[in-house]
Design brief:
Layout lengths: L7 E10 L4 E8 L5 E8 L4 E8 L2 E9 L4 E5 L2 E3 L6 H13 L1 E3 L2 E7 L10 E6 L2 E3 L11 E6 L3 H6 L6 H12 L5
Parallel strand pairs: 4-10
Antiparallel strand pairs: 1-2, 2-3, 4-5, 4-7, 5-6, 5-12, 8-11, 9-10
C-alpha cells in the first residue's frame, strides 16, 4: 500500500532529450486515485552557487541572460560535472567566472527551485576568503566582476538588478543570518 499522501509514479516517456535537459511525460497517480500524465523537466546535473563573503563584501558578476533578456548581478555559479563534488564545482566555477579562488567552503543550503515541474537541484556554499589567481578563464560569463557591499544586496533586489533565483536564495540566507558567521 502506498504511503498516505504520496503520489505514485507508474513510468515515464521522454519527448525530448539533450545533454542539458530532458522533457518527460510521467504517468502519475494522485492519492485520490486520479491518474494522468504530468510534464516533468529532468536535469542530469545539479548546480552550485558560491557565496564568497570577505570583509562585508560579496564577490559578484554582472551578466546578461538571453533567455529572459535581462541584465543582473549574480554569485558565481554553474553545473556540477560528473564525478565532481559540490565544493570542487564551486571552486572551479568561481575561478572560471571571476578569476578568484574561494577559500574552504561550507554548505549553506540545497533546494529544488521548482519542484512541481522539474527535478533541478541547487546548492549554495559559502567561503570567507578568496585569492585572486588571474583573469577569468571563461570570458563569456561576466561583463563586470565586483566585490559588492552586503548592505547593497536588498537594494539590488528592490531595483530588479538581482533576480537570479540561485543568487537571491544564497544572498538572502546571508542577510537573514541563516549561515554561521
Amino acid at each position: 500500500m502506498a504511503e498516505p499522501g504520496r503520489w505514485i509514479e507508474h513510468g515515464q516517456r521522454f519527448v525530448y532529450e539533450s545533454d542539458w535537459m530532458s522533457m518527460a511525460l510521467v504517468d502519475v497517480e494522485t492519492p485520490s486515485g486520479r491518474r494522468f500524465e504530468h510534464h516533468a523537466v529532468r536535469f542530469p546535473a545539479e548546480a552550485v552557487g558560491t557565496l564568497v563573503v570577505v570583509d562585508g563584501h560579496v564577490l559578484m558578476i554582472w551578466r546578461h541572460r538571453f533567455i529572459t533578456d535581462t541584465w543582473g548581478w549574480e554569485i558565481p555559479a554553474g553545473g556540477i560535472d560528473a564525478g565532481e563534488s559540490v565544493a570542487e564545482a564551486a571552486h572551479r566555477e568561481c575561478v572560471e567566472e571571476t578569476g578568484w579562488a574561494p577559500g574552504p567552503t561550507s554548505p549553506v543550503m540545497t533546494w529544488h527551485p521548482s519542484n512541481g515541474a522539474t527535478d533541478q537541484r541547487f546548492h549554495v556554499v559559502r567561503a570567507t576568503s578568496a585569492v585572486e589567481v588571474g583573469e577569468p578563464t571563461d570570458s563569456d560569463e561576466a561583463l563586470k566582476i565586483e566585490w559588492v557591499p552586503v548592505e547593497r544586496i536588498a537594494s539590488l533586489v528592490r531595483k530588479g538588478e538581482l533576480g537570479d533565483g540561485l543568487s537571491v536564495m544564497g544572498l538572502l540566507s546571508e542577510l537573514a543570518g541563516i549561515v554561521d558567521h
